[in-house]
Automatic annotation (TrEMBL):
Keyword annotations from UniProtKB, A to Z: ATP-binding, Glutamine amidotransferase, Ligase, Magnesium, Metal-binding, Nucleotide-binding, Pyrimidine biosynthesis
PROSITE patterns in the cross-refs: GATASE_TYPE_1
Top-level taxonomy: Bacteria, Pseudomonadati, Bacteroidota, Sphingobacteriia, Sphingobacteriales
Protein name: CTP synthase
Role summary: Catalyzes the ATP-dependent amination of UTP to CTP with either L-glutamine or ammonia as the source of nitrogen. Regulates intracellular CTP levels through interactions with the four ribonucleotide triphosphates.
Amino acid sequence: MTKYIFVTGGVTSSLGKGIISASLAKLLQSRGYRVTIQKFDPYINIDPGTLNPYEHGECYVTEDGAETDLDLGHYERFLNTPTSKANNITTGRIYQNVINKEREGAFLGKTVQVVPHITDEIKRNFRILGENGEYDIVITELGGTVGDIESLPYIEAVRQFRWEIGSNNSLVIHLTLVPFLAAAGELKTKPTQHSVKMLLEYGIQPDVLVCRTEHHLTNDIRKKIAQFCNVNINAVIESIDAPSIYDVPLLMLKEQLDKTVLTKLKLPHKNEPSLENWKDFLGRLKNPTADVRIALVGKYVELPDAYKSITEAFIHAGAKQECKVRVEYIPSEQLTPENAVEKLKGVHGVLVAPGFGERGFEGKIQAIRHVRENNIPFFGICLGMQCAVVEFGRHVLGLEEANSTEMNPETPHPVIGMMEDQKNITLKGGTMRLGAYPCDIKKGTKAAAIYGKNHISERHRHRYEFNNDYLKQYEAAGLTPSGINPDNGLVEIVELKNHPFFVGSQFHPELKSTVANPHPLFINFVAASLAYARKK
Ligand code: GLN
């Protein structure tokens, strides 16, 4: 039978529930258990696809085309296994399902209520991933903080669910903060006590407390927390601030979180976790022998979470070659023809980020012109590739007003246009070209050398595409379409001849980079930037 672990949060948000969940999953996976993680978000949007990145950071896209919370990216990067639509549920989706059933008449004249109908639908979703025997353990991370109005139905659903499946088959881990009061020189346990008390009011006794702290928990503190919160002393787990999120699995191993969890779930401890590859990755991450500066040009750079998967992909690719990648965030809005040289001075590579809308678009064009003309390594992702096509059209092909119809619907040279099947779509949510699509790589190109194969699959999230009416003109002038969708001829990769590294991808390679499998495009871009740095 599948076992269920719930991870709740108390005291404050941003304590790192996602990383704790992913770290625990990693430890259990490395002991031989089949584990997946799902995230329940208490907001009313159906999915984060319509959210501005400033709200909750990047929108992560799964293989099956779901637009999801960025924590799913952490799950995939840690576990190296794909997630799906079923791994991210929002209050919006729960209510939508219940309301659809109500319209179908499925409730047979009953009054539809939060309890039992919403809580039943939440519980149904808790179970979905555990149903077909694919997983031994399903970890469910509940977004928000205990005590939030929005979280209440989830907490109640957990209470009922535990009662239904029994205490040996489920477990609640509560993540709290143990703050350090400098004036008193002490760690304080009261916020944790209060937060557990609140959970108790809702009928849930947590089994394990993970305590986020800036200082080590002494035995006395652990004992106090255990005693006042009714847990075993070995169920008080210290989660000390770590230099990198990738240290957390090892910190949790040291705290024996995995053992405590397995014991409580009455599961055999099996083998000790084998984390050799993980440790090897950390070793290379922490002992770089080289250094590169890469500019990330984007419109949401004030909030690095907006580009989470890209920055993590740089970490994986850098570690692979023992190279520290220093990502420098450049707001595209501030780049002009006059200042681009100055602003990009000293960087060894430029990544132009994905994005939507006009703001900062022209700045991205300036950045690309600069790197193209000066042989500085360039990597453009999604909108970044589209910008490269526009830039090349304007400054190499002489199509002065070349543009994407997203930015100027009236352009005389729509080198990037809306995809045919997008033209009649009016709804915004979940209607882009989303998820995994196949791509054929042209022989003899840089893309072929990078991937080392001719057929790939990558994840997408866009409405616009390269306009194939201009294909011949571009190719003749040296911008090669090196990746093509075999089913519809869409250009998925472009690359420049006679340039050390100038590659644009319509898809998002960052979504598939994991600790175990750094993405080849990122590896090669970092390598090209390193070569450029050495030459300088
Ligand atoms: N706005 C562009 C499009 O929809 C690019 C999207 C993106 O960068 N993800 O095609």
